[in-house]
Amino acid sequence: MASMLMNSLRSGPVTSVQAARFAVRSLSSTAHLKAQAKSKKTLAKPGVRNIVLVDGVRTPFLLSGTTYSDLMPHDLARAALQGLLNKTSIPKDAVDYIVYGTVIQEVKTSNVAREAALGAGFSDRIPAHTVTMACISSNQAMTTAVGLIASGQCDAVVAGGVEFMSDVPIRHSRKMRKTMLSLNKAKTLGARLSLLGSIRLAHLAPELPAVAEFSTAETMGHSADRLAAAFGVTRVEQDEFALRSHTFAKKAQDAGLLNDVISFKVPGKDIVSKDNGIRPSSMEQMGKLKAAFIKPHGTVTAANSSFLTDGASAVLIMSEEKALAMGYKPKAYLRDFVYVSQDPKDQLLLGPTYATPKVLERSGLTMNDIDVFEFHEAFAGQIMANLKAMDSDYFAQTYMGRKSKVGAPPMDKFNSWGGSLSLGHPFGATGCRLVTTVAHRLQKEGGQYGLVAACAAGGQGHAMVIEAYPQ
C-alpha cells in the first residue's frame, strides 16, 4: 500500500513550500475578496425546502485539564445551548427537536442532548437525542436536523456537540465488574465472603477508554504517521502547516473574527471568553519535539497534532420560510452533503479526499466554484496527505475509481481562520464549528459557496456544501 501511494505523489501534488507558506496575509483585508466574489446560480431545487443556518455558537475550546476540569459534559452543552438562546432570542418552546453529538459518553448523562436541553431551560416537551460518529458526531447531528426539516417533520431544530476530555469514564476490569455484579446479587453472607475472597490484585487494574481503533488495534496517531510516510509528507511540512494554523487562528482571534465564541462563567472560576490552545511558536521550537507515536523516527508530534480539548457547540437550523416568518436573517443555506467510509487500516484519515468529489458532483459544482474551504485538522500530516491525494490522478484512478483527480483546494481559501490544530478539537463539537466558520467567512469575504470536510475514526468522512445567504 505504502509503495503504491508513493507513486501517486509523482503527478505533482502540493509541495512543502506551496502547502506550508500559504501567503500569510492580513485577515482584515477582505475588500479585494468581495470584489472578486463570483455571481453564481443558487443551489435551490424546485420542490425542495430551503434549509438555513440561522446562527451558531460555541463555548471557548479549552485544553483538557484546564478551566473546565471540574465540570461535566452537560454543563458545557448547556452553556452552548443557553448561548444560542441568548444570541437568537428564539422562544424556548419554538424548537421542534434537539440533536447532539458526542463521542466518549458520561454514563450518568448518556443522552446528553436531553440533559443539557432541560438544564438550558428548553421546554420539556421538546424531544432530544444524542448521536455518535467519532469526530463527525456534530456533523451527523446537523444533517439529522436537515433530514427532519426536509421531510416536513420539523421546522426548527437545534443541533450541536460536546466533548469533555478532562474526565472520562474509567471502568473496573471485566473480572472485577463480574465479581461486583455477582456480589450485588448474593443473598447470604457466605456467598458474599466467597466472592470477596476471589478478588485478586490483577482484578483491580482499571480499563481506560480505548484510544485505538477497535478494528485495527492501531491508534489514530500511528495511522497519521504511516499516512504521512506513505504520501511523503515530511516533518518540516507538518510543522509548517501547524504553525500556519496557529498563526492564522491568533490573527482571527485578535481581529474579533471568531464571533461564534460565547463567554462562559465557569462556576467558582473566572469568565472564559477565548480558546486557550492557540499558541504560535517557531519552527525551531517545534523541531525540538520528539515523535509522539512512532518512536524515534516518526514525524507526528504534539506540536503538529490536535490536542485533547473540552468544548461544546450549538447551531439553530430552520426551514427558510419558518426563519423568515420569525424575523430572522439566516447566515447560510445548508445544501448537499455526503458521508463516506473506506479502509480503516491504510486510509483511516482520508475521508475528505473521498467525500469532496462526491459532494461536488451532487451539487453540480467544481473546486473552482468553492470560495471557502474548512477542513478538520486532526493532524498536520493528515491534512497534507489529503491535499496530495486530492491532487493525484494516480490515487483517484487506483483507489477511488475516478477518471481524474478532483484537485487540491487553493491555500488562500483554506482554513484561513485557523483550524483544529490551533483552535482545538472537542471530538463531538468540531463539525458545528466548521459549518459556522464557513458561514461567517462567506459573509466576511463575499463568497457564495463553502465546503466543509472532515475525517473520523473508523475510516469515515463527511463533506457538506454551504451557500451564503443573500446579503
Automatic annotation (TrEMBL):
Instruction: List localization entries.
Output: Endoplasmic reticulum; Mitochondrion inner membrane; Mitochondrion outer membrane
Reactions performed catalytically? decanoyl-CoA + acetyl-CoA = 3-oxododecanoyl-CoA + CoA; octanoyl-CoA + acetyl-CoA = 3-oxodecanoyl-CoA + CoA; hexanoyl-CoA + acetyl-CoA = 3-oxooctanoyl-CoA + CoA; tetradecanoyl-CoA + acetyl-CoA = 3-oxohexadecanoyl-CoA + CoA
Q: Where does the Thiolase N-terminal domain start and stop, copy by copy? A: 51-321
- Thiolase C-terminal domain span: 328-467
Q: What GO CC annotations are associated with the protein?
A: endoplasmic reticulum; mitochondrial fatty acid beta-oxidation multienzyme complex; mitochondrial inner membrane; mitochondrial outer membrane
Family the UniProt entry places it in = Belongs to the thiolase-like superfamily. Thiolase family.
The protein's name = Trifunctional enzyme subunit beta, mitochondrial
- Give the organism the record lists: Triplophysa rosa
